[in-house]
Design a protein that fits this description.
By secondary structure, the chain is of the alpha/beta class. The chain contains 23 helices and 16 strands. It has 4 domains: 96 residues, Beta-grasp domain (Ubiquitin-like (UB roll)); 113 residues, Fumarate Reductase Iron-sulfur Protein, Chain B, domain 2 (Orthogonal Bundle); 140 residues, Rossmann fold (3-Layer(aba) Sandwich), CATH 3.40.50; 105 residues, Rossmann fold. The longest helix has 19 residues.
Amino acid sequence: MKTLTVKVSRFDPERDEKPRFETYTVEVNEGARVLNVLHAIHDEEDPTLAYRYCCASGQCGSCAVRVNGVPVLACMEEARDGMTIEPLNLPVQRDLVVDISPLITSLHPLEPGEECRMPPAETVNALKPLRSCIECLACVSVCPAVEVAKFAGPTAMRQEMRLALDPRDMRDRTTQAVEEGLFTCTSCQACWKACPKEIEIPGKAIEKLRALAHKKGFSLPRHLEVAKMIEKTGRSVSRTEPTFFERIEADVFEPYCEAKATVGFFIGCMYSHRLPQTALDAVEVLRRNGIRVVIPREQVCCGSPLIRTGQLGLLEMLQRRNIEAFATRGIGTVVTMCAGCGATLKKDYPSTPFVVKDINELLDEYGIEAPERLPMVATYHDPCHLLRGQGVSEEPRRLLSKVVRLVEMPAVCCGSGGGVKSGFPDEANALGEKRRKEIEKTGAELVITSCPFCEFHIREHTDLPVKHVVSLLLEGYREKDRKRNETCPSA
């Protein structure tokens, strides 16, 4: 047996104005789950505690709660001392019980026609991951879009794609999904990471539905403009100043010290055409840390804007050109500094003859020269396609902690992804304002991130400077050099 002390959210709508926390100490067996703790509290401490459960084996979804802020199934999550147990971020009926009935009853059932056709094996394989949903609504509870837009939510989109794949269903599920807010999803992938069954709703449902919607002519005008620009120029954005490639004379940049590695540098559209100085900063930081940088000029848009908006016609060509640009030079590692580009190259490309690494991963792996510490307090915004798309979280924090004091804030979407900023600016701005409020709570003097879209969008919602990790590292190096030159002018 072991003794655990936990905090549980309590709320009785008949007497409480808002939820409050109660602290309980209980004895449970080693290996006990959160549900066992709730049982112990109910049976031994407080029989008024309300919570929901059924199968206790991870198959019904009834016992979904938040533990330390993260959605889990209470019957599957191991109980730990000091944990905080709260209801999902949905309307609370009482204590840990949330009202799921409106969302569950709104899910559309299969509507068979007169002729019943069985799906082929390929369709069955596509259907299988979508059928494993246990309707716990953990995904809905973390979806940023449902809070600020008319979006039916990830569970509904999963169901629509499941029915769209089933040849026995006779309804037009694509049109239905569009009407339910298909294009308001920011592709933040929070739903996938919260799902206890690990259903990749953005990639296996929402993006697939968007591709079907595009074929039916539902793509948003602004998204069509982006596709036309990529077809015409190879880039998803127009230039606002001399591009990165216009600012460099060489294609290979030697390190300033003994070479640790050679990498190919995938620039991305935004850092090529809108933020070229940040890309130049990245080259400087890589060279300073012993990395030889090869930059093929043939590289083009990675295709992420097209994948996220369901416009796949040019994708194979873009993939081929980018793979050839690096493969023909015998490059074994390609480094990216844009979260979206990195996630796309890693997960949406067919097998490549090179490894793709985010620049934070690369610098953290090889180790960096210590920069001068700057007298600043910074907060780090996790780009969705870096945190959830690539699993890169601690690496940028380790780098940043070498140069500034870092304060944390919740890792939520800023609203710039999935084509939402261009297609639904009001929704993007609402999420940007939520980000601003969290930034203000930190008391930070500047915001650091690793995504150009996040940089641009957050700048519109804060007066603080917003920079990429590499730009801050370079500031630390320049301050180090300045102090060294003051001490040793002849050096």
